[in-house]
Amino acid sequence: MFGFGKQKEESLEIEVLFENNEVLVVNKPEGIMVHPDGHHEGVTVCDWFLEKYPEAKGVGEPQNNNKGEALERSGVVHRLDTETSGVLILAKTQAAFEHLKMQFHDRHARKEYRAFVYGPVRERWGTIDRAIGRSPKDFRKRLATQGAKGKLREAVTDWECIGQGRYQDQDFSYMKLKPKTGRTHQIRVHLRSIDRPVVGDKLYAEHLITESNNLDLDRMALHAHTLEIVLPDGEEHRFIAPLPICFEEAAERIAEEA
Q1: Is 81 a catalytic residue?
Q2: Over the range 79-97, which residues count as b (16 or more CB within 10 Å of their CB) and which as e?
């Protein structure tokens, strides 16, 4: 059965990419929530962060779930989906949070993701410029196609195809993606809207997972590879979360049979 790896609280290890008195940059593992959502149990990045830096408790903005219960989001400036791995920056102080928040709000923070998708990609470069709304059928989903409900929010993703080929008689492509906006599930929704969903995406590629070899991956194939951002000290930094070994192996699989 196709499934994602689960992290146990007692074995949670998070790689630190950078640290100073104001921020912490980590390589978030796949399968770990950034913060509690009120629906799922399990240790989160926030839990790990506060265990290391209890003085950072309360940093950020208060937020409640749909039941009105307060969520523990200390240090969280931006988030990655549970199934996504890669670069995540956390704020240790309120001043750092406010600075980083504006970097993301004003679109000065630049992010690059890597993903494997189902099927061939005919062009080398492109841009997906499609507003995103909510799915009328599934509260968990977003849509970038006709039929989305609620307020439609601008969403733009630049992409580049950096590899493609066949594996066990199935076509796959390897993508570099640069979201210009930061909507919920943006990359996953945009790729689904062009019929090239992310390999292993249980929410947006459920119609393909059971029929595919999924490149022999046991996780969703989306990784936040780099983040370029100006820190509170005024210096611009570029942080890199190394590609998971399984991504390198998958790239070799499609290259061998290209």
Answers
A1: yes
A2: bbbbbbbbbbbbbbbeebb
